[in-house]
Specification:
By secondary structure, the protein is mostly helical. Helix content is about 45%, strand content about 10%. It is built from 9 helices and 3 strands.
Length: about 250
């Protein structure tokens, strides 16, 4: 699912919903531990406004079918009218909001292209099949209240999907394995550096990871770093009230 807010202030909405949805419902078994007979969870991504149009809209319009959520606001947080322009910058942005959903729904046929005089050789490339799903959410304005409504909508959707698919949307066991392995790699990396050795098959890592780690460690030895030291914000912030942790009494 593509989450497409036509306001820069919601630039972090897509990755937030990505975490809410994919971490909650990215499961291969149901709440009882039985393998699911279908693929659960969505692949969620997105970008604000016209950033996405010049990035992945080609795929959305003429590649695989991806449901899209278009999010816009009637009132701009900061409208700018330029001399000689017939609409404001916010109006310009919202024209794309309306047009993109329309293009996904209706597309453009070969008959329409021929009527416009498009050469036959280009017609297959400029045809849009249409009938592609999208949701348009038009808010009166973007403020704390409407942002809360928007978040509640997505959180409700994730919860209902979990109920329908029979999942436990409130665990994230899939995140654990990578963290456990990272801790193991951390220990091996420290031992290899401390003893000035290469990582070997006896460390128990797979051959690919072993080769990559040795390449990484060999490259690190060629880099020059200053001596390691603790950095406390007092060294950056000039403030008489700022005291490093070591200055406080211990009990």
């Amino acid at each position: 699912r593509a989450i497409l807010p036509y306001t820069q202030a919601l630039g972090k909405l897509s990755p937030h919903i990505q975490q809410v949805s994919m971490e909650s419902n990215g499961k291969g078994v149901d709440i009882e531990g039985n393998p699911l007979p279908f693929d659960a969870g969505e692949i969620d991504f997105g970008e604000p406004g016209t950033n996405g149009q010049h990035s992945f809209y080609q795929l959305i319009h003429q590649g695989r079918t991806i449901p899209c959520d278009f999010i816009g606001a009637i009132k701009s947080q900061q409208s700018v009218y330029l001399k000689g322009e017939i609409v404001s910058n916010h109006d310009e942005l919202m024209c794309n909001f309306f047009a993109q959903a329309d293009a996904l729904a209706y597309g453009k046929t070969a008959v329409q292209l021929r009527a416009e005089g498009v050469p036959d050789s280009l017609i297959p490339h400029k045809t849009f099949e249409g009938n592609r799903p999208s949701l348009s959410i038009l808010m009166p304005e973007l403020n704390a209240y409407t942002t809360g409504q928007l978040l509640a909508l997505y959180e409700h959707r994730v919860a209902v999907q979990g109920f329908v698919w029979g999942l436990n949307s409130f665990d994230q066991w899939g995140v654990e394995l990578g963290k456990v392995l990272a801790s193991r790699v951390r220990t091996i990396m420290n031992d290899a550096r401390t003893h000035g050795r290469n990582i070997s098959s006896s460390d128990g890592l797979n051959p690919s990871t072993t080769a990559l780690l040795n390449k990484y460690l060999d490259g690190k030895t060629e880099l020059k770093y200053p001596e390691p030291r603790d950095v406390f914000p007092c060294e950056i912030i000039s403030n008489e009230m700022c005291r490093p942790p070591t200055s406080y009494p211990t009990y």
